[in-house]
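Would you mind writing out the residues of a protein together with its fold in C-alpha cell form for me to study?
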Amino acid sequence: MADRGTGGTNPDSSEAHETAKKPRYSRFSQQELPAFKPILTPGWVITAFLAIGVVFIPIGLASLFASQKVVEILDRYDSDCIPATYGWNPVKYIQDANTNKTCTRSFVVPKQMKAPIYIYYQLTNFYQNHRRYVKSRNDKQLRSKSQVGTTDGCDPEAVTSGKQPIVPCGLIAWSLFNDTYKFSVDNRAIDVNKKDIAWKSDRDQKFGSDVYPRNFQSGDLIGGGKLNNSLPLNEQEDLIVWMRTAAFPTFRKLYGRIEVDLEANERITVVIENNYNTYNFGGQKSLVLSTTTWMGGRNGFLGAAYLTVGGLSLFLAISFILVYVVKPRPLGDPSYLSWNQSSADNNDGRRTPSVTSSI
C-alpha cells in the first residue's frame, strides 16, 4: 500500500481509468470490414463511357421521335379577347360585370389529332409558388366535415365579415381559374369530358366527400370562379386541379379531354368566356390542345439531354481509346510520378538530380 505522506497512486486504478476511455472494439470502428476498392484502368473507363453512350443515345432518339409525334395547338387569347374600346384599360373591362366576356377564336388542325385530346389552360407570370400563397389553405378543413370551422393559415380569406368560416378557405381556392371553353367543328358541338382530370390520390385523400362549399366567393371582392354548393369538394375537379400549385410562373393545368379524333385541316371554333383577371399583374392566358405519346406531352428537352450525355460519353470513350493506342502507359508505373520526373534546367544551366522511388 502506498504511503499517504508520499502522495502515491495505485497503478491498477490508473490502468482501469485509461481502459474505461478506450472505445469498444469492433471491425466497423477500426475500419477492418471488407471493402471494394476499384482500380479505374483504361479498359474499365472506356467500357463505362461506351456503355453510357450506347444506352443513352437510343433513348434520346426515341424520346425525340415520340415528342415530334405529339400534335399541339397553342393559342394565346388574353390580349385578342379585349374589345378595342377597352384596349387602353383591360382591367376595367375584366372587372366590369356588365361587359360581354364572350370571345370567339378559331384555328386549323395542322395534323390528325387522335383521341384523347387534352385541353389545358396556360398561365404566364402567375407565381403560384409564392410562400404566402402556397401556405394560404387548410388541409384539415378540406378533408373532414368536422374541421370545416378550422381556418388556420387561410388569411385573408379565412372568414366572412360575419365571422363565418369560408369553405374552402385561403387564397389558392379564392383565385380559382374561371375561364370556360366551348368547342365546335363545322357547326358540330364537341363535348369536353371533365371527369378524372385530377389525381386520384387528391380526390380520395385530400378532399373530403362530406365537405361542401360554404360562404365561398360571397364577399365584396371576387377572386375567381365559384363552386357548386350541392357537390362535395372531392367531385369538384377543377378546384382540385387548381389547388395543386405549380412550381414555376408559367404552367399548364388540365381543363378536360376531347374524346373524338380531329382530322387534319379541320377548323375548330372555340367560344371563350374571358373571365379570369390576369391583366392586373401582366399575366398571359393561352389555350392548349395536345395529344400524347408513351412519354407524355411534347418535351424536346429530355431527348436532347439524353443525346448530349450519350454523345459526350461516346466522344470521351473514342478519345481515350486513341490516347491509349497512340501513347500507351503501363498501369502503376512509378516513373510517371511528379517527384520521379527530371526537373527543368535551373537558371544557372544545372539540372537537379531526379529522386528515384523508394517503393
The mean pLDDT is 86. Residues 71-291 form one domain. The chain has nine helices and eight strands. Strands lie at 72-76, 102-108, 117-124, 180-185, 188-190, 251-258, 267-273, 284-290.
